[in-house]
Amino acid sequence: MPYRKTLVAAVVLALAVLIVSAAERAKKRDAAPQAPAQAEKAKKPERGQQFMRLTRDARRRPLALEAAVVTYVPQDCGQTSPTVDLVAAVHVAERSYYEQLNEQFSKYDIVLYELVAPEGTRIPKGARPAGKHPIAVLQTLMTTVLSLQFQLECIDYTKPNLVHADMSPQQLSEAMQKRGESFWTLFWRMVAYSLAKQGYGDDIDTARLVAALFDRDRSLALKRLMAEQFQDMEGSLGAIEGPKGSALITDRNKVALEVLRKQIAAGKKKIAVFYGAAHMPDIERRLHDDFGLVPVATRWLVAWDLKDKGKR
Q1: Residue extents of the structural domains in the chain
Q2: Among 127, 113, 154, which Cα is nearest to 279's?
């Protein structure tokens, strides 16, 4: 019975992998003629920082999926504060990744974190994702199938310098309603993007997926397959955002940065923003445009260890 549950979970996870994979492959492959406005937009150089990457050894074997911690300082040389670290969150990862974050978080005046929850919510230690929401279900499946830990279980949110900086469920619901969105419309927007870009006869790595499901180290094989998609998740999630953004990312980021503004006004000088990697490109743009902050340093933390256990 445990094996059966694991296999079912793996199949569900595989579906998510294939959807993201199709979107990413389409983005890189698409070379069809564009309308003038689209072509101009496509040629516009992107400003920004990479917040997630996949590292490989000399033989191109995956070593790790890594998440960035990027430090931003005032562009005005006459200012020394505030400094803001964008800490890209991976919601399901190795326990050692969260242990490093707990240690790092103790060094900040304040850490702003994401969680769609009522204002003032304090997360108890060892919390688990609750409810039957598709995202919570998927995250729970990932911890089982990939042999990883869930963020809420490992990050110590009881520390006084951790501050909630996100919407309440009611606020998010109202923002999505205002935009005519739902979680399912966002999901199908991403699927539609994938299907619209995908050419007939493309080979989505079905063979690799099946091989991973029956690999002697199934969790490692699936992690490696999924990590290849996660390293460029910002591109695929662009389909969710659309030209006017989305409640799920854009509107929540506005709330987070309003909390940031208040913390700066309160005299906090060394600040971290702990949000999912997909949120970071938009947050980075706002740090530059609204706060006059520019990146000066990046360090990388191993979120998923992808080395073969027999070759360490």
Answers
A1: 2-31+48-311
A2: 113
